[in-house]
Amino acid sequence: VETETLARAEGIPLVTLEEAVSHGLDLHIDGADEFSPRLELIKGNGRCDLRERVVATLAREHIYLVGAGKKVARLGERGNLPVDVVPHALPLAIHRLGHLGLRPVLWQKNGKPGLTDDGNYILDCGLDPQDDPAALEGKIMAIPGVVSTGFFLGMAEMVLEGDADFRLIAEYRLADETAKGESSILRQEAPMPGHGKSVPNRVKIVSDADAMARAAAAHMVELAKQAIAARGLFSVALSGGSTPKKLFELLAKPEWANKIDWAKVLIFFGDERSVGPDDKDSNYRMAKLALLDHVNLKPGHVFRMQGEADLATEAVRYQAEMAKILPHPKDSFPELDLVLLGLGTDAHTASLFPHTRALNESKAWVAANEVPQLSTRRITLTYPVINNAREVLFLTAGPDKVKPLDWVLSGPENVAEYPAQGVRPKSGALWMVDSAAAAGLPLALRGGVA
Predict the structure, then answer these.
(1) Does residue 4 sit within a domain?
(2) Catalytic annotation on 52?
(3) Domain total for the chain?
(4) Of 374, 412, 272, 266, residue with least CA distance to 325
């Protein structure tokens, strides 16, 4: 009843139970008090488990949202199972539940026995961890007058675990191929070696590449204002590719260019090909023609990676140049305000390609990287620098990015195979993804479209 009242107050349209029975429900979203690796649940601490069960049985798909610490090895580890009992059967239920080894206590509300919205009592039953919760549920439901228990078995297809700020920690889905019906972790954040605790990625879905350019431009404008106000300068590492090019061309237009104090912007690059600055494949050339030539940057505020040089020597030089410009603790890494990145069809980012040496670099800021699969060499910022940035923004668009995006955001951890997984900044990476690229993402990450 409280949920219904709140929904109506917020203007959310509701259907009646009769309508739901006639047409079914596509999706049921609810919370849970604990869940097991098999995605068995205990619910009911909200005192509505009977009504929740009725609604859940009408849905085709079920997703449960839980806070951290709700996952248990066996149901019952948190020590409570609510049981709904009709009032006149209360003495019998208490007696029979005790014989089952449970420890029933009548729920009190405002100093007297509480009633559910359906007029039933709730017995909070202390219990021990259960090896076979289904068997116990069957015995409880055989007691006359018991109408529901907090066991929700065989209902959940997915459980999403989040932190106190509503950020996704892990996504669990039943793995059909496992013999025991155990759940698999579809998505879980974990720290990269040497980089401390990771924060979950943020995913923003936009309709198309043009909408992405507008959203990214607005975000970059806001970051620039904050950085200049706080530190007097805004440092950004640009990337190559067609999607960033749209962003650069938009930022070059007067209505956007005037929103940033370009005289206080420092331009670095995330990577470069082994070509000169006038080559058509040069990331610097693309950025120069699309953006840098059209805004009021100070002379000396653009720091180009010299792709025409010996790249090992250039990596040392570029790191030294960054070190002169960017504040950093001794024996640590600079803190760029923004690193822009793209995603390749092989899940590479910057010039961090699958199974290449630069993936293992933990000390150098910049690395020359042999890319045998492309028969070339590249120069690139390394994970420690990227992950130390205040903000990392991925721009990902197009149907050819469906598979790599799914690998990176939803697949098992394998940084050697999917290098973009290694990008785990302290603030969590922001992924701007167009609808075409997002088509393969799991429901939990798709969200709405901006």
Answers:
(1) no
(2) yes
(3) 2
(4) 266
